[in-house]
């Protein structure tokens, strides 16, 4: 009995290793196919979509076919989100170059404000793609909701940050493992925590709506 359970666990681990390896290679290939700039966001959305199916819905489908389908369908909308992220990143970089020209108290204050804003922007990016899949690819809604979720649930955000730091450390210590698994491994971690949080928010919203509906008759009577 114990040996059977052990073999099942080993099989599950090996299965996930192969899945993540294949998904990472697909992400890399389609990112290059889109000349990196135009390919990275559609490839990332496709990767997160596959991971969402595995983790949340238990789907076991043809990965390449599903990846290619999402990549094609989301190419335009994903790149619109990518353009927004790129513009904000350029603004941060330009502001940082400008603050380097400042000195004294003013320079310290502006750098502190900029670092704080960049930190919040980084938090927003952690939730961006999972939220994007939830709101049907609307770029501005994605940024707004990702920002609100990131600052409203700091404990989830902190756990995700620790997980990202751990993956980065592993990738630094084992460069080959990082090359083969970093994108899909990072996507798996972010999808797991963000989907759990989004499900929690949806359940809480449904409860609030049901309570409002239950209270409605008594309010009208009054």
Walk me through the structure:
- The protein has helices spanning 2-33, 40-55, 63-73, 75-99, 104-134, 139-152, 154-173, 175-221.
- It has 222 residues and is mostly helical.
- The chain has one domain (2-211).
Keyword list:
disordered C terminus, 222 residues, 88% helix, mainly alpha
* Principal-axis shape: globular
Q: What percent of the residues sit in helical stretches (DSSP H or I)?
A: over 70%
Radius of gyration: 21 Å
Note the run of SSEs as H and E. HHHHHHHH
Q: How many angstroms separate the termini? A: 63 Å
* Structural class category: mainly alpha
Largest sheet: none
Number of domains: 1
> Low-confidence runs (pLDDT<50, min 5 residues)?
216-222
Strand content: under 5%
Q: Helix count?
A: 8
Mean of residue pLDDT values = 88
What topology does this entry show?
Blueprint: H1 2-33, H2 40-55, H3 63-73, H4 75-99, H5 104-134, H6 139-152, H7 154-173, H8 175-221
Helix pairs in contact: 1-2, 1-8, 2-3, 2-4, 2-5, 2-8, 4-5, 4-6, 5-6, 5-8, 7-8
Task: Explain briefly what this protein structure is.
This protein has helices at 2-33, 40-55, 63-73, 75-99, 104-134, 139-152, 154-173, 175-221. The protein is mainly α and 222 residues long. Helix 2 (40-55) packs across helix 3.
């Amino acid at each position: 009995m114990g040996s059977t359970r052990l073999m099942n666990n080993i099989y599950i681990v090996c299965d996930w290793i192969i899945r993540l390896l294949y998904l990472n290679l697909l992400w890399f290939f389609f990112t290059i196919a889109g000349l990196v700039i135009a390919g990275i966001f559609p490839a990332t959305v496709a990767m997160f979509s596959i991971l969402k199916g595995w983790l949340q819905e238990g789907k076991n489908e043809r990965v390449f076919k599903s990846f290619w389908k999402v990549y094609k369908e989301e190419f335009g909308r994903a790149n619109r989100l990518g353009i927004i992220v790129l513009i904000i990143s350029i603004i941060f970089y330009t502001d940082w170059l400008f603050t380097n020209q400042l000195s004294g108290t003013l320079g310290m204050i502006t750098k502190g404000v900029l670092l704080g804003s960049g930190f919040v922007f980084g938090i927003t990016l952690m939730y961006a793609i999972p939220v994007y899949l939830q709101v049907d690819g609307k770029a501005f809604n994605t940024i707004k909701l990702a920002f609100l979720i990131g600052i409203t649930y700091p404990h989830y955000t902190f756990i995700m940050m620790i997980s990202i730091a751990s993956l980065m450390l592993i990738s630094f210590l084992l460069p080959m493992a990082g090359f083969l698994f970093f994108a899909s491994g990072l996507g798996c971690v972010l999808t797991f925590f963000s989907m759990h949080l989004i499900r929690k928010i949806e359940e809480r919203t449904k409860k609030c709506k049901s309570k409002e509906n239950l209270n409605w008759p008594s309010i009208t009577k009054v």
